[in-house]
Design brief:
By secondary structure, this protein is an alpha/beta fold. It has one domain: L-arginine/glycine Amidinotransferase, Chain A, CATH 3.75.10.10. It is built from six helices and 16 strands. The longest helix has 17 residues. The radius of gyration is 17 Å and the shape is globular. The mean pLDDT is 96.
Length: 277
């Protein structure tokens, strides 16, 4: 792959890594064992996934699929969590949840096909990719729940931007579920799930917050995927968030993710950024 990493925090999304789930959902007999809300219907989930891929391709995003040489675990379709792609190469996650441990190996296998080097990997402490949300070209937030403070410290050694530790409510596994940037001075966030120090920081940076209530967050309304500044993909059931985004002049693309969201993640969780520029 000629280019990779986040060249510009508010550049256009160019390449992503995804995994099309299907047979692994047969393993979800006890949803709580895998951190799921309910067992997804594999045919409907696959159709939702295919539609999301079509939407991405229509917006000129190249979609690459994770290489799976054996039966993958049920959570692998949340590729965002596998690590981070920097301009220096890939940084592999180290999962806290027992049922997700080892998923990062699929990223290692896929890296060879993509021609992206492994720049670093987190060991002995915990870091999951969904916890790193870039705020601008020089700053990113790192959620502390699944990611440990030691993981935050270790990931700081691999990236050349400033990182802010952000503890959040434990029912939301990753920071990207409750906070995402929409443009340089606009974000969506469930402030009830975040510490006041972080929202104070956003306010100090003059970043306007579209505040998502805890009730709205049951639909994962803050889990959006920015295609480019002021253009996002969001679950179609997030009616209040869609209305608020549109009132702020954001181009919103609603997609159906009813089955895929049973694993507690939305469009941002389903896509691992390989290139944004």
């Amino acid at each position: 792959m000629d280019e990779y990493g986040t060249v510009k925090a508010f550049g256009k999304l160019r390449k992503v890594l995804m995994h099309r789930p299907y047979y692994e959902f047969d393993l979800v007999q006890d949803p709580s064992k895998w951190g799921f809300l309910a067992k997804p219907n594999k045919d409907k989930a696959a159709a939702e996934f295919d539609n999301l891929v079509d939407v991405l391709k229509q917006n000129r995003v190249d979609v690459h699929l994770v290489q799976t040489h054996r039966a993958p675990p049920p959570n692998l379709y949340y590729t965002r969590d596998l690590g981070v792609c920097t301009t220096n190469g890939l940084i592999l996650a180290n999962f806290r949840a027992t049922y997700r441990q080892g998923e990062e190996l699929y990223l290692r296998i896929t890296a060879d096909e993509l021609g992206i080097p492994i720049f670093g990997e987190v060991r002995n402490v915990f870091f999951e990719g969904g916890d790193l949300v870039q705020i601008d070209d020089t700053t990113a937030a790192v959620g502390l729940e699944r990611t440990s403070f030691g993981g935050y410290q270790e990931i700081s050694e691999f990236v050349d931007i400033d990182l802010l530790p952000v503890p959040h409510r434990e029912e939301f596994a990753h920071l990207d579920v409750v906070f995402n940037m929409v443009s340089e001075k606009l974000c969506v966030a469930c402030t009830k799930a975040l510490p006041s120090e972080f929202t104070d920081f956003l306010n100090g940076e003059k970043i306007e917050i579209i505040d998502i209530t805890l009730e709205q967050e049951k639909e994962l309304s803050a889990d959006v995927l920015m295609l480019e500044p002021n253009k996002v993909i969001i679950g179609e059931e997030c009616k209040a968030a869609i209305k608020a985004l549109e009132q702020h002049g954001v181009d919103v693309i609603p997609v159906r993710l009813h089955e895929l969201k049973k694993g507690k993640g939305g469009p941002g969780c389903l896509t691992f950024t390989l290139l944004r520029k």
